[in-house]
Backbone:
């Protein structure tokens, strides 16, 4: 893997979004790279990440006279984080890959668990 | 010919045992809630054994049909019919699995995109034994992780409510979900119930998977940070959210210790 070899999947995307939010205006791929500083990935990797974010609908391309710039689709705010978290854990047809600490035990699970902990008191 | 039919009947019996009988036995047993990780492994083993039986039956029928050409006409007609029936059934199953996987992938991708946005809007991030813990500003006391992301999102409310030991227990629980690949197991369970027959045994794991996965993660977390921290985290959050499930999980840990 070129650049950012210690990064976990998605971390580069998250960091890129972070940079776009901090910029507060459309920025080019090169400017994003500059913002990464010494930890920057390669330009190709950067463009791939930006492309992926565009496909996911989180970033949009903005044409400028010197090429293409990028800006985040969703504005950042604490309210957004709250809403996103609610949407994530509250959704009816929730992704099975999503695992919460609170779990999602339904009434039947609760009964099973209760029966396992408190053995029936009949003789 | 006779051996082929006998063998195929045997393999179908094997598949029934693996897909329906085994899970039915597990569902009647009491130990799965005490040893959730073993129960999960047992179910995965049964699924593997069943699929192996399916592949063997299919392979056998096809090879027999190919070899028999030119022999007794009635035999070769029956054999090739068996092979074609098997291939058709396998094709139908494969396309059903494909459709279900695509449907599941859409909701997974959506969740993944939201989690990514959350991870980017972080207040603080730190490393906890190989996974990234990301704290976001939110009033719901939530900790959530996503398969394949290696990242745990924790709300600011949760960090306010819990002591550092309790928070470590919550993180250990989510880390166990990630390291034991519970997301994939949950996806497989959902897929199996979406594709398999609507029989009590076949559906057992899909129904119990959420519970067994939580209990398995609890056990792993208790081993890592100790029962008291996890028990008190579960009790605190269970009371805060009036969640009977979390309170019972705390009671189960306490009962184990006794």
Residues:
């Amino acid at each position: 893997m070129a650049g950012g070899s210690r990064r976990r999947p998605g971390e580069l995307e998250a960091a890129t979004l972070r940079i776009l939010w901090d910029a507060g205006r459309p920025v080019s791929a090169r400017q994003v790279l500059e913002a990464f500083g010494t930890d920057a990935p390669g330009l190709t990797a950067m463009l791939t990440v930006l492309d992926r974010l565009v496909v996911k609908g989180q970033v949009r391309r903005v044409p400028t006279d010197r090429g293409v710039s990028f800006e985040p689709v969703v504005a950042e705010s604490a309210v957004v984080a709250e809403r996103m978290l609610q949407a994530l854990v509250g959704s009816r047809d929730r992704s099975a890959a999503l695992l919460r600490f609170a779990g999602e035990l339904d009434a039947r699970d609760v009964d099973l668990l209760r029966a396992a902990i408190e053995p029936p008191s009949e003789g | 010919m006779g051996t082929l039919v006998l063998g195929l009947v045997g393999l179908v019996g094997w598949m029934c045992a693996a897909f329906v009988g085994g899970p039915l036995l597990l569902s009647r047993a009491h130990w799965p809630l005490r040893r959730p990780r073993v129960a999960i492994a047992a179910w995965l083993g049964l699924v593997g054994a069943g699929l192996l039986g399916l592949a063997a039956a299919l392979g056998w029928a096809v090879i027999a049909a190919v070899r028999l050409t030119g022999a007794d006409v009635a035999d070769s007609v029956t054999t090739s019919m068996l092979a074609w029936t098997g291939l058709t059934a396998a094709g139908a199953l494969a396309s059903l699995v494909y459709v279900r996987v695509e449907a599941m992938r859409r909701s997974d991708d959506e969740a993944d995109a939201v989690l990514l946005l959350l991870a980017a809007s972080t207040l603080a991030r730190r490393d906890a034994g190989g996974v990234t813990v990301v704290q976001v500003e939110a009033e719901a006391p939530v900790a959530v992780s996503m398969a394949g992301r290696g990242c745990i999102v924790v709300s600011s409310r949760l960090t306010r409510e819990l002591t550092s030991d309790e928070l470590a227990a919550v993180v250990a629980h989510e880390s166990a979900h990630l390291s034991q690949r519970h997301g994939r197991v949950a996806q497989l369970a959902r897929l199996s119930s979406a594709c398999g027959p609507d029989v009590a045994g076949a559906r057992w794991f899909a129904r119990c998977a959420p519970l067994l996965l939580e209990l398995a993660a609890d056990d792993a977390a208790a081993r890592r940070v100790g029962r008291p921290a996890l028990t008190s985290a579960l009790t605190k959050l269970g009371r805060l959210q009036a969640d009977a499930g979390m309170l019972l999980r705390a009671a189960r840990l306490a009962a184990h210790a006794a």
The longest strand of chain A covers residues 59-64.
